[in-house]
Amino acid sequence: MRTIEQTTQEILELATKHFKVAPGSLKAEDDFYKKLGIDSLQALDLLSRLENHFHIELPDYEVQGVSDFKTLAERVQVRL
Amino acid sequence: MLDLTKYSSLGEAIRDSLETWPREVCLYESDRGQEKERITYREFKARALPLAKWLEESGFAAGDRASIIMTNQSKWLITAYAIFYCGGVLVPLDYKLKPDEQWKLLKHSGAGVLITEYPIWRQLSVSPGREDAGKVKTVLVTEAPANGDLSRAIRWESLQAPGAPKCVERKRQDLACIVYSSGTGGTPKGCMMTHGNYLEQCVALTTWYPFWPGVKYLSILPTNHAIDFMVGFIGPFTCGAAVVHLRTLRPEFVREAFPKYQITYVSLVPLVLKNLQKGLQARFDELPANKRKVFEALRAINVSLTKSRPVLPLSRLLLKPVHAAFGGKLQAIIVGGAFTEPQTLQFFYDLGIPVANGYGLTEAGTAITVNDLKPFRADTVGKPLPGMEVRIVNADGDGIGQVAVRSKTVMAGYLNEPDLTAETIVDGWLMTGDMGRFDASGHLQLFGRKKNMIVTEEGKNVYAEDIEQAFEGLPVKEFCVFAANYVWPSRSMVGEQLVLVIHLDHGQTFTEELRKETVARNSRLLNFKRIQGIVLYDQDFPLTASLKIIRAALAERLGKLKREEAILPV
Question: Residue B338: pLDDT band by 50, 70, 90 thresholds?
Fold first, then answer.
């Protein structure tokens, strides 16, 4: 079982790779809309990738209003 | 289609539809590619009437208000019909708003009943604002787990009352809905829409874009939004057509739904359409050189053969793989809620996919003008729909002035805001706040906004006054938020941005600490409400006697500064 820190780290790595940003440039507290300059559709795309990676289903309502990696990791963690 | 001129309310019209097409499917509901529901008109009736009976028994009467806060799904429409059947007024609220904003609007609307989904209720029942919920006495919650904490709410699925409810008669001028068209800061703007508004709009729209039994409309825009409410509910449900709901709105499931259900119409906001364009273009770019050449040649043939009007069967034949990806039955993509760039519209039309781009406002009963495709014009927002009188007020030398509309679809007014209503509807004309002109062929062209409001590409209305709350208490002398295109009129409907104008105290400097605090406050706002620039202004703001900022005067002064020099990045 992953710890919340591991989950957060994996999400940051996934986002780094998917949105092609410099390794190490993303932090847990970062607002991913702002930091990655993405819109809500690209955020949905990120969610789909997280689902595949963690083999979970993240219902839309669970991620409604979430905009930082830390909260996103918490929502993922409870479904692992 | 039903002859809607015979009806005086939405409840009666839909009631007769349910009797006219009992065996037709009216709703499909799918989650992650799995179909969860397929409901006929007969089944729809069987699900809605027990709810109507329960509402009736619980004392819900004509003119009473009930709010729906739900994602797009079958229970949204079933509930809405039950409310109309009882003669009630529907208050559809955006499920994407924050819970405290939802409570604020619930209170403002005077709704006594709230119908919502369990995950939304979980947030609402613990959020600030619930103590002051106004008249909300009854909460019905859908899809609650067996052991879920309902916090005094009632399980929607458990509602049963014996006997048949009475279909309560309503007049055309009676209220059908209270629709909130904008942000919640300052004054909530609840548009009071009548049954007549919707019936007239439905007739006008279906004259140009008809629905019939067998049509499948893919519902993606939130149903509380004027567009989806009309084309994803009232339109199909008065024509025997069907609506497809997806419970998980991810690009991959949306893509899959087109061929699976052979979608006829879909409504999108410009941002989604642009993304779709990008995706398709990337796929065209990946084609091997020889295939690309063939594709370009076929596209060119399609362009030349569809110049004067769309020829869908021909386009589907010429560009088969593209049309197959959309299910092969797509009549048109309806785009609205914000301004769409002409090149995006042209891209789809050149592929043989007409885009019904138009222009509308909630206040005007959704659409005012729509592209009639005779011929397709990407550079305008189309011609006025039947029954719409549109004129340009105070036109300048170029013929550009404020767009004003008069029609039976124009709202009755803003709820509890007689002054605002009087400012907005002048001698029966709705002043839209948008600048436009008509070209020689009667098409409307838009050139920016007169009002200090932004419409994002996602179709969200953002008011500067709403954003200012986030900066309350910022340690500066005074501040104000503007839409940059309002201060520096650009005659453009794209590239709008919000700026924070700061007037520092005497001797104060814009320190790194102050910048950080501004950024921190900004990041607490929802993504689409954030400011994108800061303007440091060293003069006192013009104020009214009651110390309110005179925005128009300040905008005029700021407008003398050079835009590119004045706006600092956040």
Answer: confident
* Residue range(s) defining the domain that contains residue B228: 4-267
Q: Which of B25, B49, B191 is nearest to B108 (CA)?
A: B191
pTM of the full structure: 0.85
User: Do you find a cis peptide bond into B418, omega within 30 degrees of 0?
Assistant: no
Number of Cβ within a 10 Å radius of residue B273? 22
CA atoms within 13 A of residue B449's CA, in its CB half-sphere:
23
Q: What ipTM does the predicted assembly reach?
A: 0.78
Kindly state whether residue B35 falls inside one of the protein's structural domains: yes
Kind and range of the H or E run holding B272: helix B270-286
| Domain assignment of residue B355, yes or no | no
Q: Is B248 on the interface with A (CB under 8 A)?
A: yes
Strands (E), B125-206: 138-142, 154-155, 175-180, 190-194
A46, A60, A62, A71, best to mutate vs chain B, most B CBs in 10 Å: A60
Q: Is A78 on the interface with B (CB under 8 A)?
A: no
B447, B395 Cβ separation under 8 angstroms: no
What confidence tens digit (pLDDT) does each residue in B510-524 have?
Answer: 999 999 999 999 988
The pairing of beta strand B190-194 with beta strand B175-180:
antiparallel
The full set of domains in chain A, from first to last, is: 4-77 (1.10.1200.10)
